[in-house]
Amino acid sequence: MFKEKPDKKLLVGLAVSAVCLLLLFRKIDFAKMAAAFAGMDTRYLAPALLLTFVSYFLRALRWKFLLEPIKKTRLSNLFPATLIGYMANNLLPARLGELVRAYVLGRKEGIETSAVFASLVVDRLCDGFTMFVVLLSAFFTVRLPAGREGMQQGLVTGGYLTFALYLAVLMFLTLLRRRTDWTLSIVSRLLAPFSANASLKASALLRSFISGIRVPAGAAGAAATAATSLLIWATAIWPLDLLLRAFGVELPLPASMFIMVFLVFAVMVPASPGFVGTHHLACVTALSAFDIAGERALSIAIVVHAMGFLPVIAAGLLCLWRDKLSLKQISENNESGART
C-alpha cells in the first residue's frame, strides 16, 4: 500500500506545495505576521477545537448509518477508526487514509475491508452532495465588499451552473441505480464513437460501482444520513467563523461558507501530505475577496490549517497506539490480503 520510493504524483504534489509556499511568503513582512499572531484572541481556539472533533464524531455517526445494510456497528469502534483514517490522510500521499480507515474498522468489527471501503465511497458521495448545498448557499448569500460587483455576479452565475450540475449528477446516479442496464447502454452509445475500449471500461466500472453501493434503507435511514451530513459541515464551518473572530475579523456566516468551499477545492489539488501550501493559498485567496490580505490573511490561514490538521493527527496516532497498530503493519496486512 505504501511504496518505498516516492511516485511521480507525490513528487508533483511536493512541487505544487513548494510553489504555493513561495507565492505566499515571497513578500511577507514577518514582523507584521508576528504582530498578527500576538493580537490573536486565544479564547476562540478551545470552542473551535471542540467543534472540530464534534464534526469527526458526526462523521462516525453517519458512517454507522451507512454501514447498517451490512452490520450494526459500534460508535466506540467507528470514532477511533475515523480519527485514524483522517490522521493517515494527513500524513500519507494519495489519500491512503481511506484504506487505513476501512482496514481498522474491518479488523475491529469483523467486516471485509472491501465492504467497508464501499461504504466510504457512499460517505464521500454524501460529502460531495452536501458541499454542493454549501457552495450554492455561499454563492447566493455571500456579499462581497463594494467594488467587487463583477465577482459577486460571477458567484451567482456559478451558483446557477453548480445547481444545474448537482441536479444532473443526482439524476444520473438515480437512473444508474434504478435502471442500470438502460443507463449503461446510453453511456456506451455516447462513448462508442470516441473509443470502443473506453466505452466498455466505463460501463464495467459504473456497473461495479453501483453494484457495490448500499444505502440506508427507508426514509428514516436516508433522513438520518442527510441530517448528519448537514451537521458535519455545519460543525466544520463554524470553527472557521470562530478563528476569524480570533483575529478580529467579523464577517457574516456565508463568508465562512465561502472560505470552506475554497478549502475543499484545495484538498483536491495534488500537494504534499497534509495539503501544505495549497490549503494556505486557498484560504488566503478566499480572504482576499473580503479585503483581508497580506500578513493577517496568511496568519489566519496558518491557524486554520493547524487547527484542522494537527489535533486529528495527534488523536489518530493516540488511537493507533492504543490499538497496538502501526501504519507499517496495516500496509503489510493490506498487501498480504491483496496477494491472497
From TrEMBL:
Main location: membrane
Gene Ontology CC: plasma membrane
Residue spans crossing the bilayer: 44-63, 116-142, 154-176, 212-239, 251-269, 300-321
Domain of life according to the entry: Bacteria
Membrane topology reported for the UniProt record: Multi-pass membrane protein
Protein name: Flippase-like domain-containing protein
Keywords attached to this entry: Cell membrane, Membrane, Transmembrane, Transmembrane helix
Alphabetical list of PANTHER family matching this protein: UPF0104 MEMBRANE PROTEIN MJ1595
A Pfam family of this chain: LPG_synthase_TM
Upper taxonomic lineage: Bacteria, Pseudomonadati, Thermodesulfobacteriota, Desulfuromonadia, Geobacterales
Cell compartments where the protein resides: Cell membrane
